[in-house]
Amino acid sequence: MDSRAAVATAEALSVSFAELASALRDGTGSGCSGEADPMRRVADGFLDGLAEISRLDAKSAALKAWLAAGYSAAAEALAGPATSPEDNTGQEMALIAEVACALTVSERAAGALLAEAHALTTALPLTFSALQAGTISWQHARIMVDETINLDRPAAAALEAHFLDPHAVNPARGFAGELIPGRFRHKARTWRERHHPVSIEKRHTRSAADRRLEYAPDRDGMAWLSAYLPADTAAGIWNRATTAARALQGPAEDRNLSQLRADTVATWLLGGSADCISGGTDLSSGRESVGVGGVPSPRAQVLVTVPVMALLGRTEEPAMLDGYGPIPPSVARRLVADGAESFHRVLIDPRDGAPLEIGRTSYRLTKAQRQWLRLRDGKCPFPGCSNHSLDNEADHILAWAHGGTTGISNLGQPCHKHHRLRHTTAWKPAAATKNEPPSWISPTGRHYASEHPDWEPPHWPPELLEELRLQHVGAVIDDPPVDSLLPKGQLQDHH
């Protein structure tokens, strides 16, 4: 398939979608044309449409994988052979960054897509053919890629053939596409474990080296914390947490088992005692040293950006926790009060929501300037990167040796990975401003804008607006004018 064939295939897929939608609107999408009940015929048509959409999704995913693999091969050919391991790493980083920006996905997702596309198009022909035919889904294809990682070619081919080749020796009962992805993963993993050429003892020792802890922000002031651990360790933690949580249950305990289990583990990890989790979820007792469920407050070197009115308790606007996002103002007040040595409080301008100036002009990059960069960028400024680590590296956009200054408008704060990308590949940052991070220009000349925090005007309490209005009624000259103190339009709206 060449590039023109790929475009033709994409156009054919779009036509298929259009024809399907038209058929469903006309009520002719069902194969049950002899059904006496018209409503049943319509319902069957929509169900048939869902099944057809699923097949089209699979075909579209196959085309996407083929395009990704094709671009990877073409980019490698254009770059030429690497002259050193560092050069090879730089070429790979630049390739992944280009695909990530083109698809507006994270670099992790782009890297995974490229790896999966390469595996499907070069090592898993049966899986790729089934995906192109629409008989398995993209989830099934990804599972096959996952379960054949670290297998040699014969072992991978045997696993693939077991589920997708009906003529294989002792094939699976039923086609892979007939199983939901979760069940297919279980069956594929079971077969892999039974037929793996390397003993499970050796594989476990190797995999144990990859143990890690992961953190993922979520909505409503919450986050996920997960750990990749040896199975016995994970099971032991789970069982111990469950036993401890059940011991806390009783008539006076209003938390369910899941909440008690989470509070117990959090208390252990933060170094609290068992007594810390026996007090329920009452936050009005004045004990500012504990949070929800009596869990001790964490200590970390982070910025807490708090609206002035929220800090005073006049509004319920969310504060911003660096590296996470919006948090309830009550949590922000507790963190600021309880973690004075660890948390840096930054008030925001009540007029437009921008962070108040915390730095000063200096020849050298000061600690205050670094904090300002963190406020301006919110994270590493490379498109799609979500790295909030404290060791992000301040970088002159225009090098000092070439006349660049040490001002905020000439500074970026990329993470170590993207700092290296800038200096080892053709990726370059473009101009920045005091309030906006630098955008980026890829090796192909494409321009990608950086994400930056959206500072919103804070909400002023109605009673305070009324008080200010009354103070300025009849005034000929305001010093300063009240309109300059308020978010645009709020005073007029209050009128």
TrEMBL record:
<dbReference type="InterPro" id="IPR003615">
    <property type="entry name" value="HNH_nuc"/>
</dbReference>
<protein>
    <submittedName>
        <fullName>HNH endonuclease</fullName>
    </submittedName>
</protein>
<keyword id="KW-0540">Nuclease</keyword>
<dbReference type="GO" id="GO:0004519">
    <property type="term" value="F:endonuclease activity"/>
</dbReference>
<dbReference type="InterPro" id="IPR003870">
    <property type="entry name" value="DUF222"/>
</dbReference>
<feature type="domain" description="HNH nuclease">
    <location>
        <begin position="368"/>
        <end position="420"/>
    </location>
</feature>
<feature type="region of interest" description="Disordered">
    <location>
        <begin position="429"/>
        <end position="456"/>
    </location>
</feature>
<keyword id="KW-0255">Endonuclease</keyword>
<dbReference type="Pfam" id="PF02720">
    <property type="entry name" value="DUF222"/>
</dbReference>
<keyword id="KW-0378">Hydrolase</keyword>
